[in-house]
Amino acid sequence: MNLQSKLAILADAAKYDASCASSGAAPRDSVGGRGMGSTEGMGICHSYAPDGRCISLLKVLLTNYCQYDCLYCVNRVSSNVPRARFTVAEVVALTLDFYRRNCIEGLFLSSGIIQSPDYTMEQVVEVARVLREEHDFRGYIHLKTIPDAAPELLERAGRYADRLSINVELPTREGLAALAPQKNGAAITRSMARMAVRIEDARQARKEQARARPSSAAPRRAAAPHFAPGGQSTQMIVGADAADDRTILAASSGLYGAHRLRRVYYSAFSPIPDAARALPLAAPPVVREHRLYQADWLMRFYGFTHEEIVPTRHGDGMLALDIDPKLAWALAHRERFPVNLNTAPRELLLRVPGLGVATVDRLLAARRVRRLRHADLLRLRVPLKKVLPFVEAADHRPGRALDAADLAARLASPPAQLPLFS
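The structure corresponding to this sequence follows.
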């Protein structure tokens, strides 16, 4: 099989892994002829980082052969799909060639399990090692790690990669045992914990070194190494098992708290050829994945807990599909509103539907010098229809708008457009 045919198969097989954002990389470049690559420029096929940078990634599998038989995976051992496998040298050559052509600035590399977890992880790490040490590649590298691999291999991966990820796949151990019996939920958790400790140790070492700052007369110490500076992430498949949104968000909250994950990605289950009977026949609504991302954002940046977003008393444990979770919370807690824009603390302003983190920070800065008015919201281009029922300003009172019985219906998202031939 030629290289182009392999690339067609293995790039397509990698599309099911969503956890490939390119944020958190240490700044590097090749100014002065030092090596090749950068983590600071703009690419052409685009993954945007939270700070606005755009880093394009070559996203491939080392191989789509896999000795595991996870029922939800198109690359499982019992799946009837074309198979291919790259050598280490081929992945390195592709990465460098695509970079020279200005097509990519980074690599996202995963793999099916071949021979053993250790053998597979060794091959994945070797790609990163060759790029870093033999070609001085300074671009972004994200490695998908294998939890059953030896700790020393995961340690080596962290030395070469900007970000590591270990997929938990499903939110519960029961779901994993039913659909991926060869995967060990406890091993996944242990590997995440080890990575979290190692990442934190490296971060603390650099902080202590920065505080020490020896005088110019003292001999300079070697810089503490960066170990996976972009942290670690994971992915959950949504809709492959019976887990509801409350369970999924509780699992994500636990991962953020216990292992300081940078991101949990949610991937709506997609029906695959020759699927097992244990899998659903249809994919979940795409909007469900979108609502989970919104809820995840609320936990990470807005101070919400997962119990608030989908409370235990909530009937089916699912997020509403017609309104976003922040608006749903506000409608369920109307007694907390209206919020006075001129006096409310930041934590309460962040709970106002339609106000984002950046907007709240601008409002706080503006109210230090003047009283906020309706016109200030207009200038900030916030969605006034959503915001005004929940806030007070110097020249605005919502009156009875907050108590209107049809408020939820008026603020709900418009129905999605149906496919042309549905």
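The two ends are 40 Å apart (CA to CA).
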